């Protein structure tokens, strides 16, 4: 739920891109759009992974699995530490400010809050 400023979106995608490549993922698509950038990759096991930046700098990590058989999954034994947004039609816009990720790139964290 952290807002990623336009000035920091390339930083985030770069960090994730380098980690995925180091992990042996094959990059399949790189979208360098200034407002809504995204990167897509495939793991050695056939999982598709992507990071997209949406409206107001909201980051979306998504994973597509290769073919699997349906199986029972046990309920979590721990409580969620963040809102689950269960029953909501839409996930709310990002509402958390980070002095780094939300900064406008001018070097002034306060400038990004005005």
What this model shows, in words?
A 4-stranded antiparallel sheet has the order 1-2-3-4, covered by helices on one side. The C terminus is likely disordered. Helices cover 12% and strands 20% of the residues. The chain is globular, with a radius of gyration of 17 Å. It starts with 8 loop residues before the first helix and ends in a 50-residue tail after the last strand. The chain has 1 helix and 4 strands. With 114 residues, the protein is α+β, with helices and mostly antiparallel strands.
Question: What's the structural blueprint in terms of helices and strands?
Answer:
Blueprint: H1 9-22, E1 26-31, E2 38-42, E3 48-53, E4 59-64
Antiparallel strand pairs: 1-2, 2-3, 3-4
Features:
114 residues; 1 helix; 4-stranded antiparallel β-sheet; disordered C terminus; globular
How large is the share of residues in beta strands? 15-25%
Number of strands: 4
Along the chain, the helix and strand elements come as HEEEE
What is the residue-averaged pLDDT? 87
Residue windows where pLDDT falls under 50 for at least 5 positions:
108-114
What oligomerization state is this entry in? single chain
Main β-sheet description:
4 strands, antiparallel
- Give the C-alpha Rg: 17 Å
- N-to-C CA distance: 19 Å
Strand order of the largest sheet: 1-2-3-4
Compact description:
It is built from one helix and four strands, in the order H-E-E-E-E. By secondary structure, the protein is an alpha+beta fold.
